[in-house]
Amino acid sequence: MSVRFLTRDFDPATARRLELLGVPAPLARSLAARGIATEADLTLSTREIQPPATMAQLAQAGGLLADAVERRSRLLVVADYDCDGATACAVAVRGLRAMGAQVDYLVPNRFEYGYGLTPELVELAAQRQPDLLITVDNGIASIEGVERANALGMEVLITDHHLPANRLPAARAIVNPNQPGCGFLSKHLAGVGVMFYVLLQLRAELRARGRFAEAPEPRMDSLLDLVALGTVADLVRLDRNNRILVQAGLERIRRGAMHAGIAALFRVAGRDARAARASDLGFALGPRVNAAGRLTDMTQGIECLLSDDPDQALELAQRLDSLNRERRQIEADMQADARIDLEAAELEGSTLAQQRTITMYREGWHPGVVGLIASRIKERHHRPTVAFARADAGWLRGSGRSIEGVHLRDTLDLVTKKSPGLIARFGGHAMAAGLTIAHNALDAFTLAFEQAARDSTDASLYARTLAVDGGLQAAEITHSLIEAIDRIVWGQGFAEPLFANDFEVIDQRIVQGGHLKLTLALDGRRWPAIWFRRSEAVPDRARLAYRPAIDEFRGQRRISLMIEQLAS
C-alpha cells in the first residue's frame, strides 16, 4: 500500500524558545509540533497530576474501602487478563494490604469465563466468601454480573477505564473517568491508573479518620513502576497526566527502586533497567506479562508482580519469557495463515483498496492471539480489522484494532443498532475492542461491519499517510540528539520523533529473522540501518522515515537508523 509522508507543522518561535532552554534543534521542532511550548511543559512532576477530587464517585469509593478496612472485611480483587489488568491487580493488592486491608485476588481464564465480571465468574468468586468485590480494568459493562453479586450479598466497587454503555451496573460505586458526568480531565487513564487514584483517595480517607496518627502512612509512589508498565502496555494516550505517571515510574526503575518482578522482567528481556525507557515497557516487559493471559491465565503474571523474593520473581519471569516465545511462534503461524487468506481473496477479486474493513477467521486460530493478528493486519493494510477464533462449538470470539479516525467501539455499536442481535457482546474503546458472535453469523457480521464503517467514516481516512518531523541534516544526527530524545516519555498520542530524508542506498540485504539491513548515505556520511520485518528491497534512492538510535556492541556506541516506512 502506498504511503504519503505528511510533515508536522510547528511554530518556529516556540521551537526557538525551546532551543534557548538547551533542547537540540530537531527535538525542539518535534516538541513544538506536539504542543510543548515552555519549560513547565517539559517538567513532569507528580505534584502536578490531576487532582483526585475531580473524579466522579472517588470519594464514595474511598469511604467504602475505608469502612471495609476498619471492619476487617474480606476484599476480593477481580482482575482482567492483560498487562493493564495484571498491574492494576498488583497495585490494588499491594496498596490495600499496605493500608491494612484483608485482600485476595481472582483473575478469570479468558477461555472459560470471557471478559469482565460475568455471572459465572461471580459464582466462582462467591466460593471465597468475600464481602466486597473490586474490579480492576473491567466491570463497566458487567450489568448481569453485578446483579448476581448483589443477589448473593456481595457489594461491588467497579474501577475501570473502558467506555460505558447507555446503562451502568448497579454497583456501590463506579470509578471510571469516562463515565457520564465525570469532571476528571485526564480521560485516558489506564485501568492501573484508575486504581492508583482509588488508593490515593483511600489513604486520604484513612488519614482523615486518624488511622495514621501513630503509624507512618504507606508510600503510594512505591507503586509507580507498576503504574508505568500497565499504562504503556495498554497503549492508552499519553496525555500530560499519564506522562507524569510513566516518567515517575521510569525514574524509580532507573535508580533500582522497583519491585522484584519488574527487575526480573528486565533481566529476562535482556534490557538495562538503569537506562529504562517507555519502549522497554511496551515492547519487552508488556508482551511477556501479556503472554500469560493469552496462552494460559494471568496468575503467573500477577504473582510475578506481587513477589518480593528476587529468586521467585526471576523464576516466574522466566516462565513468562518461555510463554512469550511460544506466543511468538503461534503468532508467526497465524500471520502466515492470514497472508495466504488475504492473497487468495485478492486473486478471487476482492480488492482491499476498495474495502474499509477487514474481517478474518480461521479454524484452529488461538483465541488469545487474534488481537495481535488484527493489529498486524491493521498495520499492514491500514484498515480496521477484526480477527476471530472459535470460543466453543457455537460461538466466535473476536478482537479488533482500528486506525486513527475510526472509532472501533462506536462502529461496533452502530452494527448492533442496525443489526440487533448480530453481536452477542462487545466492549472496548476507540482503537481496540473485543466481541462475541455466533459461529453462523460471521458472513453477516463481515457485511455489517463494512457497511457501518462506510456509513460513519470518510473515505479519506483510509488513504495511508504517515506523520513525520521533517528531515535532518547529517550533522544533526548525533549522540546528544538521541540521548535528549531518550530522556523524554513517548508513546500513544505523544509519538517519538520520526524523521524523513532522501537517502542513497549503498547496500541492502536480508538478515536472519527476515529483517532488511542497509547502509545509507546522506550528505557524504554513511549509517547502518535496519528495517525490522521487511523482506522487500528498496530503490537505490529512497525517501525513508526513520528514528536514530544508539547501538552498543562490545563496548562501542554507534548510531544506527531504525527504518519505519518508505514513501511512495
Characterization of the model:
This protein has 568 residues and is an alpha/beta fold. It has helices spanning 12-20, 25-33, 39-42, 58-71, 83-98, 110-113, 119-126, 143-151, 191-208, 224-233, 240-254, 260-269, 278-295, 299-306, 310-347, 370-381, 408-418, 442-456, 479-486; strands at 4-7, 74-78, 102-106, 132-136, 155-159, 173-175, 358-361, 385-392, 395-401, 423-428, 432-438, 465-468, 499-511, 515-522, 525-531, 541-553, 556-566. The longest helix has 38 residues, at 310-347. The chain is globular and about 75 Å long. The mean pLDDT is 95.
Radius of gyration: 24 Å
Q: Could you name the ranges where pLDDT drops below 50 across 5 or more consecutive residues? A: none
Structural class by secondary-structure content: alpha/beta
Could you give the distance between the termini? 9 Å
Biggest β-sheet: count, sense, barrel?
A: 5 strands, parallel
The percentage helix is 40-55%
Write down how many β-strands occur, each being a DSSP E stretch of 2 or more residues.
Answer: 17
Order of adjacent strands in the largest pleated sheet: 3-2-4-5-6
Can you count the helices? Answer: 19
Q: What's the average pLDDT?
A: 95
The coarse overall form would be: globular
Q: What percentage of amino acids are in beta strands?
A: 15-25%
